[in-house]
Amino acid sequence: MTDVARLAGVSHQTVSRVLNDHPNVKEQTRNRVRAAIAELNYRPNRAARALVTGRSQLIGVVARNSTLYGPASMLTEFEQAAADAGFAVSVGSVRELDRSTISAVVDRHLDQRVAGLVVIANVASAAEALAEIPSDVPVVFIDGDPAGGRPVVTVDQVAGARAATRHLLDAGHETVWHVSGPTDWFDSAGRIQGWRQTLEEAGAEVPPLLSADWSAAEGYRAGQMLARMPEVTAIFTANDHLALGILRALWERGRRVPHDVSLVGFDDVPEAAFFIPPLTTVRQAFGDVARAALSLLLGQMRDEPGTADHIVVPPQLVVRESVGRPLSSAG
Question: What does the UniProt keyword field contain (predicted)?
C-alpha cells in the first residue's frame, strides 16, 4: 500500500479510503489511486485489513436449508452479487428459523468478523430471534417482516397475486380459487392478501382458501378435490409446483387446461414453460432483490446517510397457454 501511495502522490489513508470505496474521496484522486493500483498489480491484504477494521471482506448469510426454488434461487443470486462486489459469502444454513438455531449461526458469523449479515427470513417465527441481532451489526433481511425495524428487501407478493388473479378475471371467470403455501410464510401471506383483495374489489365471490405446503404432492391432493367441482373454472396457486400437482389431478378427471379450467402459478420455475400446457405464472426478480439487499448492506457498512429501510421489487406476470375463457362465455 505504501508503494501505491507513493506512486499516486497521496497519503496511505487516501489509498485505504479508495480500497474501502469511501465516498469522501475526489474522483480525480480516486482515479489516480486506481491507476497506481493497476500499474503495480497491487492486491489488498484482506487479513491485515480485517485486523485494522475489525471486519473482513466476508458477508454472513443466514438461510433456511431448503431446495425450494425461491429460497435456493435467492441465495444463488446473492452469492453472485456479493462476488461481483468483491465479497466472499459464508452461508449458515439452518433447518428451522427458530430462536436457538438462528442465534447460534449468527454468533458463528460474528466470530468470523463478517462485514455484515443478510438473513433470508421468510417465516414469521424467526422474528423473535432476529430481533436479538446486535444493533451495531449491519444487517438486511430478505423476505422479512417490514414492521421488524431493520432494513428489508422483498418482492411485491401482493402485486404479483393481484396480477395473477386479475388476469383470470379478465379472461371471463366469475371467481378464482387459491391454493396457498404455508400461511406463516410472508410470501404466502402476501399472495393470499393480493388474491383476496382483487376478488373483493371486483365484487367477485371469495372461495374458501385451500392451504397447502409448497409441493407438487400437496397440489395434487388439492387438485383432486377441485377437479370434482364443476364450478371451479380458474385456479391461482402460490407456486408452480402446486400448479404441477393440480395439472395432474385435473388430467386424471378429464378436465382440460385451459379448455375447462384455467391455471396460474407463481415463481416461473425453469420447467414452467414446458408443462402441458405451458404455465402462466408470476416471475420473481431474484437478481434485483439480491443486488438491492447488497446495496442496502453496503450503505450501512459505509454509514451512508439516507439509506432506505424497505425496498420492494415488482414481479412480472408471464402469460402462456394455461389460461383461457370459461366454456360458458367462450361463444
Answer: DNA-binding, Transcription, Transcription regulation
